[in-house]
Structures are given as C-alpha cells and as structure tokens.
User: What shape does this take?
Amino acid sequence: MKMFRLLPLFVAVSAALALPVQAQSLVQLYESARSFDASYQSAKSLYDATLAKADQAKAAILPTANLAAGYSRSRQDYTADPATAVDSSYGTQSGTLSASQPLYRPANWASYRQGIKQIDLAQAQLAVADQDLIVRVSQAYFDVLAAKDSLAFIRAQKAAVAEQLASAKRNFEVGTATITDTRDAQAKYDLVVAQEIAADNDLRVKKIALDQLVGTDNTQPLALAKLSLPALQPDDVKIWVNQSEGGHPAIQQAQIALDVAQLETEKAKAGHKPTLDLSASYTAINNMDGSSTPGSKGSHVNSATLGLSFNLPLFAGFATQNRIRETLSLEEKARNDLEGARRTVAQATRTAFFGVLSGLGQVKALEAAEVSSQSALDANQLGYQVGVRINIDVLNSQSQLFDTKAKLAKARYDVLLGGLKLRQANGTLKADDLQSVNALLVK
Assistant: This one.
C-alpha cells in the first residue's frame, strides 16, 4: 500500500533525474518555430509583399518624369536634272524631358488611402498567423508532455500488475488462491504491455510533430512543475468579450474591408468629377549635317512647354452610375461582414471562456477522484490480504487509479492550452502570454 502512495513521487523524481540539461521551454520552442515554420514564414512574406503593394498606390499622387532620346540617319537622292543630281545624307538627334503632376484627381487620393488601409490589413493578418503559431506550438508541446505522462503511468501500472501477478502465483503455489487470480493478473499484464507499446509509439509520433514544427531534432519539453493551476482572471465573460471588440484581428480585418469599400465608393463617384493635371516638357532636336532640303546646313531646335490639362466627364453610357450602385452594394456587404465577424468572435470567446472554467472544474474533480482511487486501491489490497477481496478487484483498482492520473495530467494541460486559446478567441494573445505558462514548468 505504501508503494502505491509513493509511486507518484518515484515517477516525478525519476523524470527529474532523467531530464536532459538541453530541455527547452515553451518560449524557446516558440522562438525556434517563428524562424522555421513554413506557414508563419509564408504569412510573413505576404506581409512584406502587402507593404510594398501599399506603397505602389502612393505613386498615383506623386509627379512622374520621363526622358526620351532618339537618333536617326536618312539618305536621299535628289534629281532635278540628271546633270545636277544630288545625293544627300543627314542625321538627326532628339531628346525630350517631360514631367506631370496630378493637381486634382479624387480617385487617385482614394486609392492612396486604400493603400494605407492595406498596411493595417497586413498587420492584422500577420497577428492572426502569429497567434495561430503560438497555439500550434503550445498544442504540440503539451501533446508531448501528455504522451510522456501517459507512458510513465502505464509503465508504473505495468510494474504494479507484475507485482500483483507474482503475488497471485505465490498464493496459488501455497494453495491460498485459485488459478483464476493468476490468469486474471496475467491477462491484465498482457493488456498493459499492449498499452505500453501503443503509448510509446504515440509519444514518438507526438515528438516528431513537435520537432517538425520547431525545426529542432529530439526536442525535450520541460515538464509541468506546479500542479496548482492559476484561476482564470478576469472571471467575467463580458470583460473578455468587450476586449475583443477593439483588438481582435478578425474584427480589424472586417473593419478595414469596410473602410476600403467606402473608399471604393469615393473612387466610383469621382467618375463624375473633373481632373486637373500640370504638365511640362523640354525637347531638343539637332540636325547634324543638313536636312531633306539639298544644300541646307545643320540646324538645332529647342522647345519648352508648360500647360494645364483639364478634363470633365460628361456622359459615359451610365457606366459611372452603375459602378456607384455596385460599390454601394459591396459596401453594405462589408458592413454585414463586420457585424458577422463581431458576433462570431463574441461566440468563440464565450465558448473558450466556459471551456476553461469547465476544465478547471474537471481538474478539481479528477484530483478528488485520484485521492478516492488511491483509497479504493488501498482498501482492495488490504481486503485481498485478509481474503475478503479477490485479485481482480485489486487489478481493477490499479487500472482506475492510473487512468485517473493520466486523465488528471491531460486535464491540466488542456486548461493551460485553453487559456491561450481563450486569448486567441478574443484577439489578445501575444508571445508574452507564454511567460505565465513558462513559470509553471520545471526550471
């Protein structure tokens, strides 16, 4: 009986002694994943591309300048009289420098403001990718820890069943127990061996998934040191929902989409408005050694132009009116999408909040169940020794105890992961939130 009470301590001490010095914390593995994970790197590249694309819209309101240069050579035969035929050849060089500046183009300014909105959109999209990476790394991290715990508990159960099997064999040899006890213990031992094989493979698979995610071979996550989990703060679901209103990336993206749609309507309405541009050019032409007129000498011509270009649309076959109708409908769609995003985020936040509360309740219940299962095992072992219980009762109690221990360990990990998912649901999840989880790990 004392052995089973001290078994969790033996398992914890053994795990601590076996823990390699190069074990990585959750923060360390997250930092590794940021520089390796293909999905996050793809989102980062898209973010950089969006920034460059947003700057392109600025070109519509800035001046443009062009330089053109040309050279040609011509040859002509001029015959007025066969006796005075003239064969002429001449070359021409030209160069033009031109520039223009939009003075009044409402559509261009709307496009420029849309480009600025695209920068905000790119930041929101990158925040979504970062939050997704945090959750994926945490999920893989806790999956490995849960698989390790499960394997450790199964091996501890295997040792306990092996001892019970040996005891049943001894009792059968001395005639104090039936062969049924031995066969029950043997069947239970064989089942635990099969469970050990499956648990060992599950741990291997979970470690491969974590290695692939963070780009490190043979990762060794730090174990959970503090078994008492912090309470959920704040404990009011309304506060969590209200926090999502201003900071959730999905809501930000929907709001930006609405702003862009409104600017698109401004661009459409600009189809009825005039445009005004300032233009200037300077051209130099050099006929080096004559012209098409026989006997003429070379010439040089310079010309400069400065002007204003005004354009007022009068009628475009109702294209502008229909374009405005289209953009107004798309604007209304974006407004509805924004409202839908708010509702979806609020629902997801409430679901995640109550999931964490439920998880904390399950942890407390399983902690009580662990104590009860240990007491039940002690009672069955004592009853088996005095002859009022049979071997199968002890074996079932052992299975119940170790199953409860595994479920309790998994429930603790689920609560920690649920806290991160809650922050992801209301849009406030940041890399700094991993520090509070790191504080619960073995140092």
Q: What stands out?
A: The chain is about 65% helix and 15% strand. Residues 63-104+274-312 form one domain.
